[in-house]
Design brief:
eight-stranded parallel β-barrel; 15 helices; globular
């Protein structure tokens, strides 16, 4: 049994487009994910988030389930198109009213709300009119949105996360094209990464201004430890480049005030893709934050692509390792490596694991239960590694399992299940998996 502090936050996480549904209700505007899903061939089986888990109508039931499991924190995201249907300007009061109700029900259940302002559902109007994150105007639109939301909810939400995984927004959305808006332009992707960080920096002081003495502001980044596949100089350089793009490109400007020098000056990776910046941007992005949200799923083992030009890399899957349904290696020690690194190298005041979990082929058994022993083992081993990092001084304050319930898994539709609660989509029935019951016992300190 592991002893965590009495004030440790035990939670689960979700994202608006993945669970809410009700995409055409109460004045919500179109998002880039609505448009992306409506484009044939972009999403597996041409599925979408129109209904998803119907959380918009079932949030009271879902929060009751969280309370029964013993969660004392819940990380959710607010849908920008519900608040400002065209991205800026006219405020949709009905959208704010929904989150008002959600927060009040959470607080009544003794569950602390952790609100993420942006989990990828950009208003489509901003994409159409200014080019979305490729244009710095979108960063200022985000600041307006953050101001509107926090003026309404800042008296009750004290834990704010500006962005979720800007790496994915920038590079999966604009370079590989596997996420909305589905572009494939490296130059645009690097520029978008800067504007996302600028949006974060602009929002931080507004969230503080609209809060109180209890207000805490942070950002959630996704991380993978990067390792060279061999001791060759090429592989070591490429592993450093992978760490630079995935990890340090977002960490360093926030916590050190500048982009990594090796990415700008030494490595051949960026070249003329270095984003355009304006005087003062670095200071805006480096606005002091209270915590870092850490999303961790897998490590990356990197090698020079055989036959590829110098500087192009591929990832290697170790033989004999366990893999999730996503094809991701199960590597719990990676979480320990990250948490201790952030503590030692960046002296970040507080850390939260804001996402950690696994997709496995869950099925409803004849006994009416969902038996997922691999997920139980996955969570136990990652908790052990997090606890080890805390014992070495890492200031970990909470842990949010991804995800509270099965949901729309972006371009993979409904084919992957990450939840500790099973969702039977035709009936919308919720069934707590064995992992959910195990997590409940872990929160009580009984496992």
């Amino acid at each position: 049994m592991l002893n965590f502090p009495a004030d440790f936050r035990w939670g689960a996480a979700t994202a608006s487009y993945q669970i809410e549904g009700a995409v055409h209700e109460d004045g919500r505007g179109e998002s880039i994910w609505d448009r992306y899903c409506a484009t044939p061939g972009k999403v597996l089986n041409n599925e979408n988030g129109d209904v998803a888990c119907d959380h918009y109508h079932r949030y009271r039931e879902d929060i009751q389930l969280m309370q029964e499991l013993g969660l004392n924190a819940y990380r959710f995201s607010i849908a920008w198109p519900r608040i400002l249907p065209t991205g800026k300007g006219q405020v949709n009061t009905a959208g704010l009213d929904f989150y008002d109700r959600l927060v009040d029900v959470l607080l009544a259940a003794g569950i602390e709300p952790f609100a993420t302002l942006y989990h990828w559902d950009l208003p489509q109007a901003l994409q159409d009119e200014v080019g979305g994150w490729a244009n710095r105007e979108t960063a200022y639109a985000f600041a307006e949105y953050a101001d509107v939301v926090s003026r309404r909810l800042g008296d009750r939400i004290h834990q704010w996360i500006t962005l979720n995984e800007p790496y994915c927004s920038a590079f999966l959305g604009h370079e590989s094209g596997e996420h909305a808006p589905g572009l494939r332009d490296s130059r645009v992707a690097w520029q978008a990464s800067h504007h996302l960080l600028l949006a974060h920096g602009l929002a931080v002081p507004l969230l503080r201004k609209n809060g109180d003495a209890q207000t805490r502001v942070g950002i959630t980044l996704n991380f993978s430890p990067t390792e060279p596949a061999t001791d060759s100089q090429e592989d070591r350089i490429l592993a450093q480049a992978g760490d630079g793009k995935l990890n340090r490109w977002f960490l360093d400007p926030i916590f050190r005030g500048s982009y990594p020098a090796d990415m700008l000056n030494v490595l051949p990776m960026l070249g003329d893709f270095i984003p355009k910046m304006e005087a003062g941007d670095a200071a805006i992005i480096a606005a002091p934050v209270d915590f870092l949200g850490v999303n961790y799923y897998y490590r990356m083992i990197i090698r020079q692509s055989p036959g590829g030009k110098l500087g192009t890399y591929e990832t290697v899957n170790p033989e004999g390792a366990e893999y999730t349904e996503m094809g991701w290696e199960v590597y719990p020690k990676g979480l320990y490596d990250l948490l201790t690194r952030f503590h030692k190298e960046y002296q970040i005041p507080a850390l939260y694991v804001t996402e950690n979990g696994a997709a496995f082929p869950d099925t409803l058994s004849e006994d009416g239960h969902v038996h997922d022993p691999r997920r139980v083992h996955y969570l136990r081993e990652h908790f052990n590694q997090a606890h080890s990092a805390m014992s070495e001084g890492a200031p970990l304050k909470g842990y949010f399992v991804w995800s509270f319930m099965d949901n729309f898994e972006w371009s993979l539709g409904y084919s992957k299940r990450f939840g500790i609660v099973y969702v039977d989509y035709p009936t919308q029935k919720r069934i707590v998996k064995d992992s959910g019951h195990w997590y409940s016992d872990a929160i009580k300190g009984e496992v």
